[in-house]
Amino acid sequence: MPDPSANPNPPQGDGGANTPRKRGKKRWSKKRGKRKPMPKDNGPHPLRRVQFGPIPTFAYRPPPGGPRVIHEEERFVVVDKPPGLLAVPGIAPEKHDCVRSRVAQMFPDAIGPMTCHRLDLSTSGVMILALDADIHRNLSKQFEFRKTQKRYLALVEGHLESDGGTITLPIRKDIEVRPLMLADHVEGLASETRWRVLSRETLGGRDVTRIEMEPHTGRTHQLRAHAAHPRLTTVGEMPGVDDDLPVGLGAPIVGDELYGGLPADRLMLHASMLTIHHPVTGKRMTFKAWDPF
Predict the structure, then answer these.
(1) Which residue from 41, 196, 222, 275 could staple onto 149, CB 3.0 to 4.6 Å apart?
(2) From the candidate CATH numbers 2.60.40.150, 3.60.20.10, 3.30.2350.10, 3.30.43.10, the one assigned to the domain spanning 57-145+274-293
(3) Is 276 helix (H, G, I), strand (E, B) or coil?
(4) Phi/psi at 140 (nearest 5 deg)?
(5) CA pair distance 192, 272, nearest whole angstrom
(6) pTM to 2 decimals?
(7) Where are the domains of the chain?
(8) Residue of 3, 80, 97, 120 with catalytic role
(9) Distance CA 80, CA 153 (A)
(10) Per-residue pLDDT at 239 exceeds 90
(11) How large is the C-alpha radius of gyration of the chain?
């Protein structure tokens, strides 16, 4: 999701893109209404900072080959994204290599935006891509209106005491430490994740828990933030006053360098299952990618 070159002498009052806007006015759209300003982390509400910047930069080294095709039809394809490969192109030329570009090479007749949803760079698993614009429109609406079902496999730090539950921790972007998210009980976006324990194990001599996570909202880094909290920067906590506020697992995902996970050779988060409605027939279809860890 290119601007024409600026006109040094723009026409006045034509109602178009070149019309000068009064200083201090914000853009407005009928669909979204007035733009809500991003809250400041040093506002009137208490801030408990856990993550500090700057976040270290990294060299993008996409894995060779793939992605493996799970299911293929004339108008869409389902693949198993490997960890370390971007879902969509980045801004830098060296980051143009991604799932979308590789699938476009595999299906040279594909047209349209192709990607209907995304996975984080470090996350592996099921992704569906449209091969024409109409199918892309249909699938994108399914994701937008939460008509799909997604499940993830994760290894988290320690042995969890509970066997399952639902996390409703509101989150938003951490404007002081990008690209991280933080918990915000005042201005955060509603987020919901259901989870259940599959097994309690050890990895490299350390206790870990294998869990299944099912997000019912699609916020950036939602599963990673929900796993890490309360070891996550948080706005709006009042200890002793608001002790009933929603919390996360307190167990970062193993290999999550952004949110304090135990060191590992990869992020132990995998999109294991995706259910959609066939964009032509409406038939419910489920796709799975085998567990890589």
Answers:
(1) 275
(2) 3.30.2350.10
(3) strand
(4) -60, -40
(5) 18
(6) 0.84
(7) 57-145+274-293, 149-262
(8) 120
(9) 14
(10) no
(11) 21
pLDDT tens-digit readout, 111-168: 999 999 999 999 999 999 999 999 999 999 999 999 999 999 999 999 999 999 999 9
What's the CA gap between 189 and 184, in Å, rounded? 8
Q: Give the tokens for residue 83.
A: 């960890």
Q: Any catalytic annotation for residue 120?
A: yes
DSSP string, 156-222: EES--SSSEEEE---EEE-TTSTT-EEEETTTPBP--EEEEEEEEEEETTEEEEEEEEEESS--TTH
Residues 149-262, CATH architecture: 2-Layer Sandwich (3.30)
Q: Is the pLDDT of residue 19 over 80?
A: no
Beta bridge partners of 290: none
pLDDT in tens, 32-47: 444 455 555 556 789 9
Contacts of 21 (CB under 8 A, 6+ apart): none
Measured distance CA(88)–CA(114) in Å, rounded: 10
Residue 167: both structure tokens together:
């996390």
Place of tokens 């099921």: 126
Question: Per residue in 183-203, pLDDT tens?
Answer: 999 999 999 999 999 999 999
Which string of b and e fits 180-190 if b means at least 16 CB within 10 Å?
bbbbbbebbee
pLDDT (0 to 100) of residue 263: 96
Confirm whether 57-145+274-293 and 149-262 share one CATH topology.
yes
